Amino acid sequence: MAILSLRSEAGGPAWQVWPNPEPVPPGNIQETGSYFFELRGSPDAGTAELLVDDRTLEALRAPEPNAALWRWSPGFHAGSIEAELRLQGQAPRRFEFVTDPDKRKLTRDDFDTMVREILEDSFALFSLSGFRKSVARGSGTRPPAIARLEFLRSRIDELEKVVADILRNPRRRLSAEEIILPYHAAGRATGPEILRSFRSGRVVHETGCPSRLPESLKGCLPSRIRVGRRRSSLDLPEHRQMGACLRSWAAWLGAVAEILDRQVSERNGRKQEAATWVRRCRILERRINSLAKAAPFAEAGEATPQLALSSVFRNDPAYRRFFALWQDMNLGIASVFGDFLNLPLARTFELYELWCFLRLVRAAADLYGAADLDIRDLFVSDAAGGVTIAAGAVTVPVGGGWKLCFQKQYREFWIEPDGRGSYSRIMAPDIVATLGPAEAAPEGRLIVLDSKYRIEDGLNDALSSIHTYRNALVTEDATGNVEGIVTAAYLLAPHVPDLRPGYRDTPLPGRLFHPAYRTGFRFGAVTLRPGMTPAEISGALGTIIADATASESIP
Question: Other CB atoms closer than 10 Å to residue 111's CB: what's the count?
Answer without folding.
Answer: 27
